[in-house]
Amino acid sequence: LIKNGLMPCSPYKPKRAVSVHVLDLYSCIFQRSCDAVTAITRAYNSFYVERGFPSENQEKQRTLDPYRRGFQNAHQWFWYLKTVIEKSVADALQRGADLIPSIHQQTSSASDAEMDFDPACAAERTGSEEPTTGNPEPQVFGPERPPTDKECSRSLQQRCPSCFGSESHGTPFSAGGDIQVCIDGNFTQRHYRSVGNCPSFYSPQVILPKSFVDEVGNRIDAARNKKPREYNGRVPSIAVDSCEKSHESGTGSTVKTSMSHYDDGGLMGMVCRHDIPLFLTNIDTPGEQQKYGVALITHLFSHLPKNATVTVLYDVGCVLDRSRQLYALFPEGVDSRLAFSISAMHAYAHHWACQLVYNPRMTNGMGLFDGESLERLWKLLMGLIGITRVSAADRRLWMLDRQTVFISSESRDKLGAFMRRRIHASLTSKERESKTVLQRCGATIEELREQWEQQKDAQLSISKHAPTRVRKQVDSIMNLQSDLDGIDKSIAKIEDNMKEGGSSKQQKTLLTTLRQSKITMNENLEAYYLALNIQDLGPEFQGVDVVFVQKLFLAHDLKQNVRKRAIANFLEHSRLDQASGKKDRPLGTKVHQKIRRSISKRAPPLVAAINRFNKLCNELAELHQPEWNIPLPDPLPTSLHELKGCELLLQDVCLSRSEELLPRWLTDQNIRDGIRAMQLLDRCQEERIRLGREADNMLRWYRRELSSIEIALALPENALLWVPLYAYREHTLHLKARWVNQFASTIRYDNAISIAKELGDKAGIVTEAASRTAPAEGTFEAQHQLLLSQVQSFVLNRQAQQPKTLTEPKVVSDSSEAQDDDWEDEEDPSSDCESDYDDGDDSDEEGGIARNDEESHQVEQAVATIQPEHETDGNGDRLTLDSSALTDLQLPATPNRVPHRNHIERRSFIVDYGSGPKRHDFDYRELAILGDPSSKLNDECINSGAAYLQHLCSSTHDTSSRCSLFSSFAYTMAQCCRPDDVLWREVSHLEFWKRKIWIIPIHHHNRAHWSLAYVNLVTGDLYMFDSLASRSSYPYDVKDVMLLIIRLGRLATKYGHNLSLSANRWTARPVAITPVQQDSTSCGVWVLVVIFSVFKGCHMSVLQPNDLVRFRSLLYQHVLLLPPRPRT
Predict the structure, then answer these.
(1) What is the pLDDT of residues 552-564, one digit of tens each?
(2) Care to name a GO molecular-function term for this sequence (predicted)?
């Protein structure tokens, strides 16, 4: 079924099968839109029902969804087979990459006669596999091939060559490190516990196994049970505590998923700076525990060289950074090569002191990486949410893994667009904007850097953060103040009502109660003020008015409250605007208005808090004395639009006094603007440097990958993978136009293509020489045992039926009626003609075809001897053997045209025979047969293939112009005694009467076997080639060929052409007396090989059976280079 393009819905007694073209189309649709199987199967059901083909059960009732389960199974295993092919292609490319240094070494040294192509040796020379000594520790989970000392693992290079294609590592963190990634969790990709699981059938490529994640979790628990190390972080621990409490992912105890309904709560992923997903891990706990992030980072380092440095952006990177400094969370040697930062969008929800160290816009070396790439990945995976929640657990992971691999491949192809977009859309505009602000600032870059360092030193000081006791007391004061403000508003409102409409008894009672409550609350507020012992803060505020210090602490905490509310409000509006603007999933009008009203209700408290803060700022300004040297806070704008872009919102109120004059970064707005512009300009320059390095990495990977493809195509053991390899080669060649940028020009990519072509040519030459020196036996069958098991059994059975040895060759006269004993058991081949040519009663008693008596008598008189030996030709010279078949058929280093990617379109070429041009076609069926090494060639493959070989030799060998190539139909027509006019129409365009050598392919229809006859009209020699060296059909084939020769001579004379045949009696001889065919399908390929040799003036080729795969592959490559011909 599969060989005929159908995928069974069941491995045992399938009732239905689905076309692989339909499955391939659905796979492409699924990758783009994530449409469930139910959609297409129900569409098929409706389609068939409307046309009168409903599906019924055993009770003759229509089934509602008859195709879903079968289609789902067929699609699952079809996709699995595609992954097997992808794995085989990846292995072939890896072998090609391993052979690159070996080819360089062997082609550069002319004295190196022994050609060893052991991939293990090549890998050892490249350093990809280190020699093991002793008993190394087994690795629980890691890459299939460990990274080298210079390069990352091949799997990471394939996912993002821009990040992982470098050969030098060790970049300091001040320059951003070697690699920048981000991690984040998502709790929408859940899985219902009630659905259950299915048998495991797939090994994910990007999803880490649960056993590895649990092992990391156990290691973290063991480390936390030990005594913590001393914390030496730059950010005060009190600030990190604030960040941990303000984020849901800060602590793993926060419940984000109800595990009573779900067994898988979500996913955590790792993405590089180019939005390419690297790894995923399944979350099976209620919260986002640290073990998931640690597992992703640990697995990443297992793919990197030992000196590579990594910067990880995480929503709570400050919390994880403190944890790894307190406890040994990572394996040995990782901490020194790991740095943390926080994603840009989440940075503004962090404490200001945390932002000074971890904000990527304020950290040296981070460039313009924002760390929000995972948000884009979750959006791309959004379509799988509904499908995966109700799928089996392992099937859910399979779909997520395959979709992530597809996204990774698509993103890799878009690396060129990413670089151009980053250069033109981001760098140019931001650099221009930054330089404008710096010019307006009036300060030099050195002065701005000095002010920035002073600001960080001042705001990272531990003394600038209030003690916990004071913060709690200030919170209580703020709550009382809020309640007191509410009472004042209520009293004012009641008094206004009493003035307008008179006073009632109820209003008077309520007013008295409110005034009494106000007095009580004022007393409590005063008590809190007295309890707030500012002197406990040390000599920092000695000599400062207590009321001023109290209001300063109130302003400090109130500003943090305002910032928290403002950021939440900004995020809500941003998300809502995206939905309304159709940048995200659209919301209905009513829902949009409802959400906006809900957000608007939360705006007045924010504005009230801003007004309260501004009021405190005015009161602090009235109480302030210059000799205190305490910076005053600036008021905030009350407009939310202005507040969103206000830098003052992110700065805390200073809780210390300055020993000297107030710094310029605190008092001069132009300096603050200049510092931001300087930081942005630094990030742009860092981004430009990193983009240049990444462009070099992409070019290096491109050259190496294309070289691996060319070498893999040159290796004969990859014959079955030639079609996907060639398609991948074409895809890689087209990446040049997409990846060219200002850092890597077209010239550099063209040079990489030339280098790859040269390596491919060298690999073909060296491999051919190596195969002639020591041909590998059984390579084809050894690598494809499953596909060729039937062929192998057929070969074994045929070998058992063949005679053990051949006796000494005999000369058999044409008048001999007795036959050799070895021929008695074989079938009479005289009935080889097809039924289409049978004329009913024309068969003789032996099952042959009745022939013209005169022509039969001429045949008897013409053939003098039938010689079984082939050591000499008719003149006594030894037969010439062709030793350059593979070399002459080798593709040029730079073909004039790229093979057409659509293998279904027919290929065509035109041959001018003198009488006029004739078109030869390779239809899609012939292309499929020619590209499948296990398929037997048909008539069109033989006839068109032989014509193309003659066309190929016409410019290099003059002998081909003296040959007349007949089609296989000419022999069949002569054998079946077709009328003269029919035969003449078949052969007249060849002008065979002008040629001295005739080549006649012979198809034995009853045995489905190919043989060959070629004739020298001058010497009267008839050469017969049979790859099985069959002795029983030999005499009959000779007579049938002679019949065709005599008929052709008579027809030429009849139609006015002079044809002189040999006046001597003809001698027929076999070219092969021992079988050269070792399977049941290669007879047609052997015929093409011998025809190719005859065109070059030889009698036979020296090719061995294991060379046929390479010959067939090369011929297939030539055919695909032909221009496609549209169907008419």
Answers:
(1) 878 887 887 787 7
(2) ubiquitin-like protein peptidase activity
